[in-house]
From TrEMBL:
<dbReference type="Pfam" id="PF08486">
    <property type="entry name" value="SpoIID"/>
</dbReference>
<dbReference type="InterPro" id="IPR014225">
    <property type="entry name" value="Spore_II_D_firmicutes"/>
</dbReference>
<dbReference type="GO" id="GO:0030435">
    <property type="term" value="P:sporulation resulting in formation of a cellular spore"/>
</dbReference>
<dbReference type="GO" id="GO:0030288">
    <property type="term" value="C:outer membrane-bounded periplasmic space"/>
</dbReference>
<dbReference type="InterPro" id="IPR013486">
    <property type="entry name" value="SpoIID/LytB"/>
</dbReference>
<feature type="domain" description="MurNAc-LAA">
    <location>
        <begin position="346"/>
        <end position="455"/>
    </location>
</feature>
<dbReference type="InterPro" id="IPR002508">
    <property type="entry name" value="MurNAc-LAA_cat"/>
</dbReference>
<dbReference type="Pfam" id="PF01520">
    <property type="entry name" value="Amidase_3"/>
</dbReference>
<dbReference type="InterPro" id="IPR013693">
    <property type="entry name" value="SpoIID/LytB_N"/>
</dbReference>
<dbReference type="GO" id="GO:0009253">
    <property type="term" value="P:peptidoglycan catabolic process"/>
</dbReference>
<protein>
    <submittedName>
        <fullName>Amidase enhancer</fullName>
    </submittedName>
</protein>
<dbReference type="InterPro" id="IPR051922">
    <property type="entry name" value="Bact_Sporulation_Assoc"/>
</dbReference>
<dbReference type="GO" id="GO:0008745">
    <property type="term" value="F:N-acetylmuramoyl-L-alanine amidase activity"/>
</dbReference>
Length: 464
């Protein structure tokens, strides 16, 4: 199934481009991410993470490619998309096996590929996404790990001099020299008039100056001190989000399989086969916004009293049903026949970040103008134009109406950040058209026709 799923990889270090099959790419990504001698189930969980990260970016699955190098699906910068072993042709057997045994499997949340982040060692607990990325992601939650204490990075120590600390952080402060208190170490210092130590509490014990001199074998008890270095104790390695790799290793050694490992670190997720668009779900991974134009206020009606806002909403509802059934994620800009102003509806569309939007409207023209469907797109919007052409074709062949498409610099078209069209499906001032669109069956036909146009736009083929 995944055969032929090609990936464009940009090697950001060598400035090279690789075109390779997804499954082949995953091997190089795993080879860069995890030591090949990790247990098989840990390698398999890593393979699923690497594959999921790639799939999430691929345009065929609704991704937007690498955001830094948008011509490509992924880059090889581990800090951006994900790392990639540049030892081409030298993939260890264990990694090949792990990738092959998980072929086509990805990690999903509500059916969508997740941002399957991983890190070396969490140090006991993973982290909540909002503390690192700033936004809350439902599947990147803090979880207890308890499997990574074997990691060489579980606790590491480093001594950093004050001089180095100032330099690295670009700060300056006085590290005072003198008889200064250092909480918990040197406290309650009493000196003689000449500056010799009379009494001092070191830790939990008091000493006389003379004792200090003797015990430390120093020349005198007239002394000063200063902090010159700090020993840091570092727990874990990496950002702490998603899968703890040493934790995955620990879980695998305890007999857990890769699916359990992944579900432990990614809250509420499932391991699933990649779903490819097919006849059963041609619009899978597509996000479509449907905008029922006009709300209930200043809502115009036809001669029979049929309200435009109502018609637009009812048609949008049916269109949403059809598109969802075919696999698309759909949002409506308003619910029920509520009033919602244009800016608010545009905001809904842009927040949803869809692949395209369809705005449904009705015309109010001279009563004798009959049988026209008008489709508008923004001047210069090539995709919008193609979508308009496809929907026009569908109207002409399915409903035998005169459909026309125009470019128009309309506010809604201009403000939405994705391709889209505005469709005026009837002339509500024409009594015959008003009657026709008042019928549920006709409205359903219109929605079905718009769906056919969308299929034509994506696949260049006509479904019934
Ligand atoms: Zn990237
Ligand atoms: Zn851990």
């Amino acid at each position: 199934m995944e055969q032929g799923l090609m990936l464009k990889v940009f090697d950001s270090r060598m400035k090279k481009v690789y075109r390779m099959e997804l499954e082949e790419y995953v091997k190089y990504a795993v080879a860069s991410a995890m030591p090949a001698d990790f247990p098989m189930e840990a390698l398999k969980s890593q393979a699923v993470c690497c594959r999921t990260i790639a799939v999430r970016r691929m345009r065929i699955f609704g991704g937007s490619g690498c955001t830094r190098y948008p011509e490509y699906d992924v880059c090889t910068d581990p800090g951006h998309c994900q790392g990639f072993s540049d030892k081409l042709g030298e993939i260890p057997e264990s990694i090949k096996k792990a990738v092959e045994e998980t072929s086509g499997l990805i990690l999903t949340y509500n059916g969508n590929p997740v941002e399957a982040l991983y890190h070396d060692t969490c140090g006991g607990y993973t982290e909540d996404s909002e503390n690192v990325l700033g936004n809350k992601i439902s599947y990147l939650r803090k979880v207890e790990c308890g499997f990574c204490s074997d990691s060489p990075h579980y606790v590491t120590r480093r001594i950093i001099t004050i001089k180095n600390l100032k330099k690295k952080l670009g700060v300056n402060f006085d590290s005072a020299t003198g008889k200064v208190d250092i909480k918990g170490i040197f406290e309650e210092i009493k000196t003689t008039g000449s500056g010799r130590i009379k009494r001092i509490k070191v830790g939990d014990r008091e000493f006389s100056g003379e004792e200090i001199k003797e015990l430390l074998s120093i020349n005198s008890n007239k002394l000063n001190w200063k902090v010159v270095a700090i020993a840091l104790e570092i727990m874990g390695k990496g950002h702490g989000l998603g899968m703890c790799q040493y934790g995955a290793r620990g879980m695998a050694l305890k007999g857990q399989d890769f699916a359990n490992i992944l579900k432990h670190y990614f809250t509420g997720t499932e391991v699933e086969k990649i779903k490819m668009p097919s006849e059963d779900n041609p619009l899978i991974f597509k996000k479509i916004a449907v905008d029922p134009g006009k709300g209930s206020e200043d809502d115009l009606c036809g001669p029979m009293g049929l309200s435009e806002g109502f018609i637009n909403y009812e048609m949008a509802r049916v269109l949403r049903e059809i598109l969802s059934k075919e696999g698309a994620k759909v949002i409506l800009t308003r619910n029920n026949n509520e009033k919602k102003d244009l800016m608010e509806r545009i905001r809904v569309i842009n927040d949803f970040d869809p692949d395209l939007f369809i705005s449904l409207q009705q015309n109010f023209l001279k009563p004798d103008r009959e049988g026209y469907v008008e489709i508008f797109y923004l001047p210069g919007d090539k995709e919008g134009k193609r979508l308009a052409e496809c929907i026009k074709e569908a109207f002409i062949s399915n409903l035998k109406v005169q459909a026309v498409s125009y470019e128009a610099d309309l506010f809604l078209l201009r403000e939405c950040k994705c391709p889209g069209v505005m469709i005026f499906t009837c002339n509500l001032n024409c009594p015959r058209e008003e009657k026709r669109i008042s019928e549920e069956k006709y409205r359903k036909n219109v929605a079905q026709t718009i769906f056919s146009g969308i299929i034509l736009y994506y696949y260049g083929l006509t479904l019934k």
